[in-house]
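Entry type: protein chain
Record version: 2
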Amino acid sequence: MAPGPTCTLSVDRQGVATIVLTNPPVNALHPDVLSALQNLLEECHSRTDVKAVVITGSGKNFCAGFDIAQFAAQSPEKVKESVSGASQILTRVLEEGAKPTVAAIQGVALGGGCEVAAACNARVCTPDAKIGLPELQLGIIPGFGGTQRLPRLVGLQTGLELILTSKSVKGAKAHSLGLVDEIAKTPQELLATAKAVALDLASGKRKRVRTLDREDRLEPKDIAKMILGIAREQTKKRAPNVQHPLLCIDAIEAGVLNGGKAGLAAETAAFNEAARLPAHKALVNIFFAMRGTKKVKGVSDGTKLAVPKRKLGTVAVIGGGLMGSGIATASLEAGMSVVLKEINQKFLDAGVSRIRSNLTSRVKKGKLTEQKLEQMMQRLKGVLTYDRRDFQQVDIVVEAVIEVVGLKQQIFKDLEEVCRPDCILSTNTSTIDITLIAQKMRQPERIIGAHFFSPAHVMPLLEIVRSSQTPADVTRDLLRYGSQIRKTPVVVGNCTGFAVNRVFFPYTMAAMLLADAGVDAFRIDRVVQRAFGMPIGPFRLTDLVGGDVSKHVGGNFVLSFPERTYGNPSGQIAQLNDKKWFGEKTARGFYRYDKGEKKRTKAVKDLEAIGPVFQKSAQHAQTHLGVPSLLGVSDRDIVEMIFYPVVNEACRVLAEGIVEKPKDMDIASVMSMGFPAYRGGLVHWADAECGAAHIAARLQTFAKMFPQQSGFFVPCEYLLNCAYRGVPLSQGQAFYQSPVSRL
């Protein structure tokens, strides 16, 4: 049985003690690790045979930071106590103890790991070590002295940038910044190099430095105040709805102006305040939700499956359009070989060109070398036919052609003839029932959905759509493919729109209904984006997706859920399609799109052009569809009218078992639609900031306000049950028996 979280101690003949942080695989700072570290350091300081101490991590990593599981396992007060105590301990026994200390950093030194290293009197790392303070991504601030020591090591301006952006730096960069003192040439030389530095500190050859006392890298106070002021203004503009980055700046400022010890006290107070804010719980929820998506009951939860894991070395992508080329790009970047199938040479050349362009963009950003780009392109083969010699080599197929049922059915009929029996056959359809696509196959159970979001090589989510017939081993291996190409895969059930598109179909429909009721569409976009935190508003999103696509997809939902959709035959989408104003791709939609600086497209409000569209739509809606004219609508009303129908649909998805667990819906909403991570995902936000009873009551109010569109707002049974019982939506599955299970 493996030992629990701890630290180990050894002392060599030269008198250098080595303390090893031991909590595999990343040596997270569990309270037992911190306690052991304190005890062993105190022992070293009291021993006469110890001259200096080296701190390192077991295995391939130094330390990935505080054990995040403690945020869920312990009360907030206990966590605050642990962090506050650790900060004082690091100062007393690591930085100011009788014997000098050196951090020997391999792998990652993130968060608390970086702070442990910064508290040492010197730091040595491997060339590929990764060092940084990403705490703001969890809604808190560095709590082990990071807000004080990092700016003292690298300078205030650089320190602010690294902390506020959660950026990490690698070994050579860390050395040039002053974050580490020496670089070990190889990982094998790390410990020897660190011990040599430790002995130099002990003998006086090298001056012992206590980071908290340093001021030589800090800017003069008048300049520092100016830098901090600019950082505050930029932070307010970049993240207007969260407070913890500002608390972090406050803590840094206290140390710069009043000294390191005063800064530590300010940091502890700021950490405790940040830990009480909703954003902290929300971002921790996202952290665990992301890690929980790969654990699927009966598939990847330890269940032993009869079929062994498939080799996933070659993928065939059917269709080289924007989506197909993106999927091919992601697969090439993951080291796979790709067969790209198109219907003619012109389309094939265009697809290959898109892939090269995607990879060239990575080269320009310094994330890929020209040599590696060419190596990737050599693993790409373009084909125009279903040649068995090519497709017998394929381990997985992703079909990514236009949303035409007949075309997709023929493709899978053909694929079944040329691919190996163990080859995974997947479709990237965004809305079509996968069993309908499989109707012409001899073995329809082979088909599975692999729904990417555009652009596929950039967007992190992959919806894996399984039917009641899908074998568990196929789902398991598609999960593996998703992880291999660095996506966060979420397994969902089979229905119109699956999870994300189905849950969010009311998002744009609600916006168009409000516009038909007389609410300014541009105000709706502004409120949803700036006040609520979505990356763009619903009208801007429609332009990005394309008005023609929106018409097609919206039509699917109207057919599938006629009782709870909103459509206006003379509405905004219909008019824009008549005018061929499809959004960004045609330079006109709800907005006009002008080319700005650096070839960026700028969205411009053109009221003269779009005003008549809104007027005609509203006139028809209010005259023929019974849509009321609304006055005095507040920003909060807009948020609730837009998002509560979305929450209502999410409740139906939970009730039907389209997603296995609420956290899957949370992570899917964040990674696909850009739902604000600091709100914790759709279900978490509904529970934490609204409550089932309030949502149900407001939806009932909206249903009365829009009597002829009441079905759009009427709360579903799952939501009403949660409201009546007083339980969170995230716990409703525990008592609500789904009438139909889709997973």
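Comment: The CA atoms of residues 39 and 93 lie 9 Å apart.
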